[in-house]
MARVEL domain-containing protein
Amino acid sequence: MKIIVLIARIIQAIFALLTLGFAIAVVNWFNMKSGKASPGAFNVLVAVPLVALLALFYLEVVPRIAPSASHPIPSLVCEAIPIILYLAGCGVAAHFVMRLDTCLGIICTCAKMAPVFAGLSVPLWIFTTILMVKQIFTHGFRRPSASRPAMSQA
């Protein structure tokens, strides 16, 4: 089970970096080349992967280096927040791209790919959230320790 979660986390990080890269390219083009302010939809898609990467840090690194700082409830919140933000960012950016009259070139492709990878991130976050909820219901709110082994059947 741990290897499945680790693989899902790696894919989540890759999708976050891809979403971030495509969204930054669009925001940079708008700010530097078009003379207009970048659309808010892509500003959101710059912020959401950063939040997701911070959540991944809390979910994967903090339990390893500071187990006492890790608790299931904040972990569950860190699992749920990227789902909501990715859904919102994906929907808003996809709506923005859909409203464009003409969409040609590499920036247009980046504008189309950013919401795609944001949308692909949602099922991964839902999957890992379900696994965490299952773990919380199975093991409770405390992590099993060597001094308090789990109860065994008689």
Q: What stands out?
A: The first helix runs from residue 2 to 34.
